[in-house]
């Protein structure tokens, strides 16, 4: 796929999705970090239901740490893997207080050193909370990148590197959410809605489903 086609694809996605933002509820970098940790193998809707009850009670490292594992789990027990996530969040809160003055660090290395935070989570926080040009490749972005041929790759890191290289500069900050939202609502897994897709004529997916 050439640069001209990629630019047109992202121009159209940006026009179709004028507010490409996360669907997780948050009001601070810390709230976002916790929400993203909770979102692994869970839906944003499910995470929001939990954090909408948790954050009015505890939305700082100290406040959540003071809840303790058992107290925190009462708020997140509806989310998959809540035992492991709760344990990791308590450890993360302790590290944030001990090493970062209660603030969320702004480097990938420091973020990935936190329990429960991998490359994808770190990239989400860097992009969404701090406006950095990172792209966290989740299942939606991996699917859209390979289907459309915007950035085909065999694994998430391969796709991430190709996206960082090939996404037009003017769209690099919003690319993460443009691709996620397009994958979540249009280029869905089982039967993509090609007939209502704004980039259908530019997409290089061979098995399009146009009713």
List the helices and strands and how they pair.
Blueprint lengths: L2 H14 L12 H11 L4 H11 L6 H16 L5 H18 L8 H5 L6 H10 L10 H10 L7 H11 L8 H11 L26
Helix pairs in contact: 2-7, 4-5, 8-10
Protein described:
With 211 residues, the protein is mainly α. It has two domains: 3-21 and 135-196, Helix-hairpin-Helix base-excision DNA repair enzymes (C-terminal) (Endonuclease Iii, domain 2); 29-128, Orthogonal Bundle (Endonuclease III, domain 1), CATH 1.10.340. It is built from ten helices and no strands. It has helices spanning 3-16, 29-39, 44-54, 61-76, 82-99, 108-112, 119-128, 139-148, 156-166, 175-185. The model has no long low-confidence stretch (mean pLDDT 95).
